[in-house]
Amino acid sequence: MRYCYAPEELARSQSLTGGHRQEYLCGRFAAKEAVLKALGRGLLQGIAPHDIVIGRGPEGAPRVELRAAAGKAAPLVTVTVSITHKGSGVAAVALATCRAPQEATGEADKNSDGSRTP
Fold first, then answer.
1. Cα-Cα-Cα-Cα dihedral of 72, 73, 75, 78, to 10°?
2. Cα gap 42→35, rounded to integer Å
């Protein structure tokens, strides 16, 4: 479990009961595998699944955070993911898009006076 899931994902799963916990974990695993494929990697090819964190954005949509080896392997990449559940089936799709180097450092968010745009 610790190899596949980040600590916050495991903590969230502990708050779920019954089939919701299994659905949550299966959805996260499918999303992590989809992210690996979008990055051109497979499972056990240099990126541990726990380095790909599938969180939730403010609107509830899945949000991808690439940590440690995943972040180093794709420093200029933003990944979006969609997860779907139907009965006992789970599927996920991920899309990787390249950012300009200044976006990765936050330079694109700077105003002419050096302040950052919120």
1. -130
2. 9
Q: What is the pTM of this model?
A: 0.82
Residue for token pair 């898009």: 97
Averaged pLDDT for residues 44-56: 94
In angstroms, the Cα distances linking 18 to 22, 25, 55 are: 7, 12, 21
Contact (Cβ atoms closer than 8 angstroms) between residue 69 and residue 52:
no
Query: For residue 19, how many other CB atoms are within 10 A of its CB?
Result: 11
Token pair in block for residue 18: 């019954």
Query: Is residue 92 predicted with pLDDT exceeding 80?
Result: yes
Gyration radius (Cα) of the chain, Å: 16
CA distance 74 to 66: 8
What share of the chain in percent tops pLDDT 90? 75
